[in-house]
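Protocol step 4 of 6: structure prediction from sequence.
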Amino acid sequence: MKKFSMLLLMLMVMAVLVTGCSSQKEDGGDAGSESQAIAPGNVEAVAENEFVSIGQYKGISYNAVKTEVTAEMVEQEVQYLLGLYAEAGEADHNVVQEGDNIVFDFSGSHNGEKFDGGTATDYTMENVGNGGFIPGFEENLIGHQVGDQYAFDVVFPDPYQNNPDLSGENVTFEITIKKILGEEKLPELTDDFVANVQTYFEAKSVDELYDVIKQQMIDYYADSDKTTNMSAAWDAVTETFVAKKENTEEIERYINEFVDYYHSYAEMYEYDDFDKFLSETFGMTNEDFMKEAESYAKVLSTEDAGVALIAEKEGLAITAEELAAGYEKFSNEYGMDNEAVLNYFGTEENFSRELLYDKVSSWVYENANPNYTEQDESLDMPVLE
């Protein structure tokens, strides 16, 4: 959905605004407005309305991807699966050394009373001595052997944000060293392992596991490549869009959506001061924010006009059945009932407009001409032995 992706994109845009990537161009062009960056005359218009002229949109060429699933990629997935069931072996030494991975119990007390977060059983610490615990803790593990039970005192840092009550306080830890871990050992890949391991592959043999993983990867990359290619085809079309006249009503609508969204975003992070939220989160002023919101709103308004124009020329419209399917999709994917969808989009007209965007962009993709690189043209998969 355009609006859902639009808000996510806006987050990323905001994160880089202070670098100047989206600042106003010296020639007065709109920031970030790639679809409007093409000057009239550079593209031969094939259709136009009050707000936009557009170039070729049917049969447009674009750079496409097609991922080949190789034997190496499948093997990597198989090894990843085995790694999920790997078990650590025993180390070849029984005295804790710096850099070891160990399993131990600890229990901390302050003035004879145990404190929250100070006790654990069978705790695994990786890379002993790397400074993950408070100063002095890991140093008191090194040099002790498996089976040792002992105690030591350490002083918490001051300040200590995780538990301010312990800042600068002396505490006692009781320790039991239980195991020093060696290198992980992968399970043997056998028919018995495949048949009994709990996975979503539902394979019963090693050969079947490779076949299932391979097919799932083919399906995954087919979907992923299609998403990428649909976006590339649509981008190729929108690059021909040239704004003729500003639709002030639509621009204002988008600006208000941006403002409302980011105010709710600020409230979610408990900011009462929106200017402070913008400054601390994005490093920008409210004036900068409004300029960027307006600039991006103009891009989207022009794109909307282009969508409407293509839909008109090709007789594309949202039917009652497609509208109902749109509601159902939101219910399945986002857990939103019809009322929640209308609340999000404002009106059913706005929601229908989003569905039309999807329909038009899909039509463009289906009628486009993909240009594959030579190495990506084939899905002739190697046979896994």
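Step 5 (inspection) to follow. The CA atoms of residues 90 and 182 lie 5 Å apart.
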